[in-house]
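Case 1220 in the screening queue. Each case pairs one protein sequence with one candidate compound; here the compound is zinc ion. For every case the pipeline is the same: read the inputs, emit a complex structure as tokens, and attach any notable structural observations.

Predict complex for case 1220.
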Amino acid sequence: MKACRLSLATAAAAFSDEEKKMAAEKASGESEEGSLALTVEERETLGGLDSRLFGFLNIREDGARMKTLLGKAVHCYESLILKAEGKVESDFFCQLGHFNLLLEDYSKALSAYQKYYSLQADYWKNAAFLYGLGLVYFYYNAFHWAIKAFQDVLYVDPSFCRAKEIHLRLGLMFKVNTDYESSLKHFQLALIDCNPCTLSSAEIQFHIAHLYETQRKYHSAKEAYEQLLKTENLPAQVKATVLQQLGWMHHTMDLAGDKTTKESYAIQYLQKSLEADPNSGQSWYFLGRCYSSIGKVQDAFISYRQSIDKSEASADTWCSIGVLYQQQNQPMDALQAYICAVQLDHGHAAAWMDLGTLYESCNQPQDAIKCYLNATRSKTCSSASTLAARIKFLQNGSDNWNSGQTISLHPVQQQAHSWGLTPQKLQHLEQLRANKDNLNPAQRLMLEQLENQFVLMEQRGLHKGQSSHLAGPNDEQPLFPTGSTQYHQAACTSSQNQNGHHTLPRNSVPQGDALNHLSSYIATSGGQKGITFTKESKPSRNRSLGSESSRHAGDTSNSCAGIKELPNHVHQVTTVAISSLNHGESVSPNLIIADNPQLSALLIGKANDNVDTGTCGKVNNTHPVIHTKTDNSVASSPSSVISTATPSPKSTEPTSTHSVTSLNSPHSGLHTINGEGLENSQSSTKVDLPVVNHKSSPQIIPSMSVSIYSSSTEVLKACRNLGKNGLSNSHILLDKCPPPRPPASPYPPLPKEKLNPPTPSIYLENKRDAFFPPLHQFCTNPKNPVTVIRGLAGALKLDLGLFSTKTLVEANNEHVVEVRTQLLQPADENWDPTGTKKIWRYESNRSHTTIAKYAQYQASSFQESLREENERKTQIKDYSDNESTSSDNSGRRRKGPFKTIKFGTNIDLSDNKKWKLQLHELTKLPAFVRVVSAGNLLSHVGHTIVGMNTVQLYMKVPGSRTPGHQENNNFCSVNINIGPGDCEWFVVPEDYWGVLNEFCEKNNLNFLMSSWWPNLEDLYEANVPVYRFIQRPGDLVWINAGTVHWVQAIGWCNNIAWNVGPLTACQYKLAVERYEWNKLKNVKSIVPMVHLSWNMARNIKVSDPKLFEMMKYCLLKILKQCQTLREALVAAGKEVLWHGRTKNEPAHYCSVCEVEVFNLLFVTNESNSQKTYIVHCQDCARKTSGNLENFVVLEQYKMEDLMQVYDQFTLAPSLTSSSS
Ligand SMILES: [Zn+2]
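Case 1220 output:
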């Protein structure tokens, strides 16, 4: 195969050089017309182009020429591939991918990249490829894959020149995915980088402020917005948007004083926003809402009117207008406005609900029921259960209603469907008309039907469009103060505009525009979309993201004012985001990418070449706001996340799966030529996607050209030569490691009957048992993910009373306790806060208190429960028989509302003076579980890592939960239950962490950082074994390296816990693997493994050859890095200052990205002279100061010293079993 492949160089040259052309023709068979030839100059230009230029390519005068050239190049490459029957070098496809990307032809870029991926085993070394692929996935909203590709880029090349762009986009994607912590981190990393990217720093700051708002940290948000307003030369658009956010926040939140005060603030902000951008329909809309809420009806109408004039038709606005009418007792006008709203957005739950209440108020329960049903069907419906109850009530009671006396509001359903055409249908019709000549029979039939309907509509004088039906069946004139027809017309025309936009080919817009729009999108209606895209941002505007219902909170409650039973569909909105996480439904209409009909069609599952009638009905369901993107060209920029991305957490996941899989179907020319290679992607499971394929590779010792058994001098010499031979200076790593990947689910899957294995338990009777050496071996054996050592405290006569709440209060009553406020969940289940469905997300709020106060809480909780117990006993006996039957109704029945409990956690017992007795008692333990011992890696770190090599205490009431996790850097952990109550544990072996990681991703959770509580049913389905056991007082639980676990208290109890690192190959391997995984995921490794490895080499004799090899390899790699970096700095004229180390000096981390920094510390001049020594890693230093002029480099170890340690670290002769 390889032999007959044409190389990229030959191929590219072939078009200009006659001789080589002949050769190419020979290779490929047939001759091609000469018009395709690329000149030498052109080839040179093209040679310098790849994905890194995306968004930066000749924005100015040169744009058109460049486009032509790229188009020509694509044509050349494609015909060459065709001639060579696909047998060309893989680089060829990569380059073709880049060209298509630069031309914004994303589907062709994707197929070319995928071809490259399938041909090139070490594709991961190619940062430009990964970056291009990430951009394409980003464009398609396949965030899951985009995130992976971008993280891979930064992993293989931390100094990648578009790192800033990557961080920006990661920030945006994590924001959409509701992983706010990661989002903030990436925005901050983007912000410190002084390189250019597609958003200005003011815009990035805006996103950070909005991130706070999204997280309901309103005061931080307000502060950040106000800070931003102080920026000099703040672009008007950003200013307008900031003011708009502030205004809306003041309206919705209690940020300042009473209602009058806050509304007046809100109105002021919004007016100022309109000064900065008078054309913002959104600001006008908000202003209308503010006026409406303080009863300034005329002003409200005027503002809404402005909003409709300034922006595209919005279901929100119409819904609010309806509310206003309803308040003015103008039900007919309210009706029309609501209908307009649901016409624009059939899934507008709030409008359906409002319409329902309107019908109810007019004694038309049957119509109300229909509306409520529509509302419950909507994905944005936040109060399905309340509605269901209401529907039931109406159904039962409706006999008593006398519908004869109602005003003649027509049933909505009928109206929407028998009158006129919906905007969706109109659009559909237009598309069918446009494609008249290429329709299949079914499509032709559809066209006929629609034409007939259209004619009918025109005959009725409704040709103005779908909204004209609003004139109402009885021809009652609306009482809209400013003339409703105009409004309706506005709604109508704007949706026609939408269509116009919709059909514009994306790449007809020059790239320069794309960039201009980047900076201005905030100003336009796109801005609003952009900024708010998650449901969680609910109280603020959630444009385009389908959360209108939540935004309508205020309105709906208003509208309900006169109607008794249904006031609170509003209050549950806050739970939407959480509860909607588990919706595994198919693509919601909201997901569909508005400016790319073709893709939209694909997303729905059809891989047609054109916007195809069969699918556009669905496409058109897209929320209108999405359709009305002001400019198509923005789509591939970050701002498009904004306009195209869907807001809701649930949505992104299905999108990614769908989009990518359906994109893989052969719809582009390339595929038909290179038929094979894409089979992988046909399956709908994620694992099949390119970037994520488990092309597994040894994580610690990749093949390398340098032996770890050579002396340090030889090694370094060899490395130096290597450096000269190949890689560019910017790469410190000479041999790159592939990015780490989570393990695939172990194969073959366990049979179902083995999914509840018995927990390895050891019963101790006396002290001798506890010190029996095989106990240590048993616990650290990788086959035992967990070991329960029963009766340990008794056997050792440990005085656990020292850790009882009473003693703790006596010892240090003012000591700090971290409090987690949690929902008390039924036994082993985890429900969303409304109790509607089981979810993985398990959030809890953090606060702080003291031991004394928590003790009080713990005691009163106990007493309260005693009292309740007594009350229950005195009540009817048969009721109280069995509480645990609650698990019987696990499936359907609604749970909740849940009681709130407080869990006292992470109480730091490291202070030897404060906790002398307690800590001393623990020295009675066998060495392998002791907090400090020679055989414990964490005792070799040389400094305190709070909670890891020190003791932490937990104070619990029943239901207190420690969510699922692996320990920091996969270290082992020791946990002793002090009692008096029990704890229940759930444990999953290490090799299944990849499966759990995937579940977390599916649920939009960060495996490493979020709080999650696995759904046992999911695990069972996925053949994941779960060990489950009760830890009684005095039992010690040993969690082996990498074991995933989660714990809940059954009774009132305290626990103590810490980590240990047994000196085994398995522990070291898992710790290093997690260290790398953390790096990929931008999470800090709490255990500084580089620092620790050197300390181990100095202090420990290693006799296990496997452990020795791994350590030696790591040392070698670091040695090499130190040398390379040092020499590069010196060569660049940068002085390296000797700094040395103090005794027990902690390991260093980059203050920006939190990666461990070893030996060479980059410290700002300022920080150096102040002796604060704030450390940066090299990459972060270069991002803030390209030539490092603002930094000094401090050196902590002499090369000779490191070399000596390296050389002296040798394999020790085998010892008889260690233990203690
Ligand atoms: Zn850094």
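Case 1220 observations:
- Residues 1105-1131 form the longest helix (27 residues).
- The mean pLDDT is 74.
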